Amino acid sequence: MTPRRVDPVQGPLEGEVQVPGDKSISHRYALFGGMARGTTRIRNFSSSEDCQASLSCIEALGVEVVRNGSRVEITSPGWRRFTAPARVLDVHNSGTTIRLLSALLAAGRFSSRVQGDSSLNQRPMKRIMDPLIRMGARIEARDGGFPPLLIQGGRLTGIRYRLPIASAQVKSCVLLAGLMAEGETEVEETGPSRDHTERALPFFGAALIQDGARLRVRGGARLRAVEFRIPGDFSSALFFLVASLLVPGSRIALKGVGVNPTRAGFLSLLDKAGIRVERSNATESNGEPVCDLQIRADSQVRKQFPNEISGDWVARLIDEIPALAILGTRLERGFKVRDAQELRHKESDRIRSVVVNLRQLGVDVRELPDGFVIPPGSRIRGGRVRTFGDHRIAMAFALAGLVAESPVELDRPECVAVSYPDFFQHLEGVCRR
Length: 433
Fold this sequence. Notes:
This protein has 433 residues and is α/β, with parallel strands linked by helices. The protein is 31% helix and 25% strand. A hairpin with a 2-residue loop joins β12 and β13.
């Protein structure tokens, strides 16, 4: 594991970046393609290790997967003909894979074991276990709620389920199980969450009914194969949007980015702050809005950008908060995050990871149970930081290196491959040294 040094830039960032295919959508199309009968063809499939784990897991269920760069073909006999995996299913670091895959395994007429790496195996699974058990699955977990999971699949029965918290992963898990269950399944949301599953299912032939916060599907679904191009990943594009705000005068064009409103809360935040974002070449693919993005930031960003993220904004910006913490060090009024307890249960405890590393770089940040406070007038000195094996922490603190007083060194930069293997090459491509 070779550390990576990021040096301060000498001028504005410039260039064009094509971010990888959207990770959340790629997961879903991989799993839905595995459930559908026929050959699903996907272009611009995510290069992330997480999404490769989803493909490997459906292969283990008797589905044929052909990979050709970012093009993927999935040929399946349909979910009714899944076969028992001959090995333990390894999802690596992918929380989305284990939570959505568990629905498929719960409906299989076989026993299976699914686990992840040491980080993933510390993440709680009761949120998906509880509804699946209510539907008839038998699931055993370490310490009552942590991977590895031993799942004895069988006949499922539809339920009505009110989500205890807003969660796209839990919502999607229950809906997928409902497609394979007897009767009708209803999921009631308690707050907004990503809606990629709802947008995708009709294209696969599933009848999904939405009535306000309630979503309903009928069991015994016959999903059909589709062809689709995955939009660029907004969560990956976010790092270059933030970089444009950090380095005055920057002009980075981001091509073909998915701007689903349930994902692109950061754009709404910029609009609210009066920061101009150029959108061009707008189109739609299978219900997913796509366009090119470019920020034209000026010196007023440090005054205009909101100095607090809390309440409903947290759910809309949960993946973006580590990068926003770096931007927060440049704001004239400082920066505060509240109501973000969920960050403590990601690939790392992201509240702690942000605080530890900012302090290491000379920022006098205060840790809160549900967030942190960065005082006005903060300066990033430079130094060595710990990624904690967390891809979003690594990419966020790479941005810190662009505006630090001296280089920033990342201890385990290879972890960016979880979501964005080419991140450092793309970042270097827009930098002036």
